[in-house]
Amino acid sequence: MAKATVMAILAIGLIAGAWVSAKAAEIRRYVVEGSRAAGLSSCVEPTERMRRMHMEFIKHQRIVTVHQGVRDTKYSLAGCIDCHISYDAQHKPRPINQPDQFCGACHRYASVKLDCFDCHASVPNRPGATRSASAGGSTDGGGR
Ligand code: HEC
Ligand code: HEC
Ligand code: HEC
Fold first, then answer.
1. Residue 134 belongs to a domain
2. Would you say the pTM of this structure is higher than 0.90?
3. Structural domain contains residue 129
4. What ligand is nearest to the CA atom of residue 82?
5. How many domains in the chain?
6. How many CB atoms lie within 10 A of CB 65?
7. Dist. CA 131–CA 137, nearest whole Å
8. Which residue in 35, 29, 33, 62 sits closest to 48, CA to CA?
9. Does residue 79 have a pLDDT over 50?
10. What is the chain's percent helix, strand, coil content, to nearest 5?
11. Which ligand is nearest to the Cα of residue 51, counting in written order?
């Protein structure tokens, strides 16, 4: 009897603890102020799923695009950048891999190094996205 009660209390404690740490995990957010994402409530998949799985989605997208020529925009790298980019006071996009920007900040925290932006633009390259004539040279300081 007493043992069952203790177990029940322990179980409740565990559940409460998990809830608290889930809440605490929620506080560390990387979505950047001023980005389109900052005004939306969900990523292209439920956010929790994106946190754990985005690398798989992107890699799969790369294979599908490069080898099969399919350009679905849902998981495209260009799409991630478009929605998660933020802009400086001159309306110039801040390279997404900078250590204080979306991909860069979390990867720095997680000690993940990417070579993607050796080839891929770290700013939106669709027409209409503001870009300086000097092609990002000056703001690129501590990028990698
Ligand atoms: C050596 C150069 C190079 C590197 C490094 C590179 N890519 Fe690519 N990637 C390309 C080229 C070229 C294409 C084809 C361009 C196209 O068809 O749009 C491409 C296409 C893609 C696509 C499909 C197009 C899109 O915008 O979704 C994805 C996704 C992608 N790469 C992801 C990555 C990721 C993630 C990394 C880092 C882990 C990476 N790439 C590293 C050259 C590179
Ligand atoms: C149309 C806009 C949009 C696109 C496109 C988009 N995202 Fe998101 N993303 C969001 C929003 C909005 C959130 C925050 C949702 C929330 O608060 O729950 C988010 C959250 C995330 C998170 C979790 C961030 C955190 O602080 O925990 C990751 C990781 C992420 N996105 C990666 C990606 C990747 C990788 C791509 C490209 C494959 C991508 N996103 C494309 C809107 C977008
Ligand atoms: C909330 C944190 C977070 C954000 C935001 C985030 N990532 Fe990641 N990313 C990670 C973690 C953690 C890993 C390593 C996972 C592992 O090692 O299993 C990772 C790994 C990756 C990988 C695989 C690297 C490899 O060498 O296999 C790619 C590609 C990637 N992220 C792309 C992106 C892009 C592009 C963005 C921005 C659009 C982004 N990530 C934003 C946390 C994040």
1. no
2. no
3. no
4. 2
5. 1
6. 16
7. 11
8. 29
9. yes
10. 55, 0, 45
11. 2
With a 6 Å cutoff on the Cβ, whether 25 touches ligand 1 is no
- Residue carrying the six token digits 């209390």: 9
pLDDT of residue 118: 95
The answer to the question of residue 48 being in a domain is yes
Decide: 93 and 129 in contact? Cβ < 8 Å. yes
Contact 121, 97 (CB under 8 A): no
d(C-alpha 45, C-alpha 134), whole Å: 35
Closest-lying ligand 2 atom to the alpha carbon of residue 54: 35
In a domain, 9, yes or no: no
| Residue-averaged pLDDT of the chain | 80
Q: Are 67 and 75 in contact (CB under 8 A)?
A: no
3-state SS assignment for residue 108: helix
Structure tokens at 99: 């250590």
What range defines the domain where residue 106 resides?
31-122
Q: What is the pLDDT of residue 28?
A: 74
Gyration radius of the chain's alpha carbons: 20
